[in-house]
Inverse folding.
């Protein structure tokens, strides 16, 4: 019997990705907190690797309960969080890496 192979179980994301989802969901109040609790997203390490399925399950729950517009709204909230939080650290890391090359 042929078993289908998927990359979903092997792909990982950083804790930073889940933290951005966490912050965006918390902006929804208790509804967002409940979704996070259901999926065990309570204490995240930004440097740790997590399975991509963690993110997917959260988005699936949001989609099934509140529809496509809720997922889009969450995405916009996550984008602004990333810009405010990680843009400066990303630029700093590029500068450091560039200095090491010279």
């Amino acid at each position: 019997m042929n078993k289908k192979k998927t990359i979903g179980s092997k792909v990982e994301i950083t804790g930073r990705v889940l933290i951005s989802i966490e912050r965006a969901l918390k902006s929804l109040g208790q509804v967002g907190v409940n979704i996070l609790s259901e999926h065990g997203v309570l204490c995240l390490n930004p440097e740790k690797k997590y399975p991509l399925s963690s993110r997917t399950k959260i988005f699936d729950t949001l989609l099934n309960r509140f529809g496509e517009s809720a997922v889009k709204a969450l995405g916009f909230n996550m984008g602004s969080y990333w810009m405010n939080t990680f843009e400066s650290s990303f630029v700093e890391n590029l500068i450091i890496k560039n200095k090491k090359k010279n």
Residues 12-101 form one domain. The chain has a mean pLDDT of 81. The radius of gyration is 16 Å.
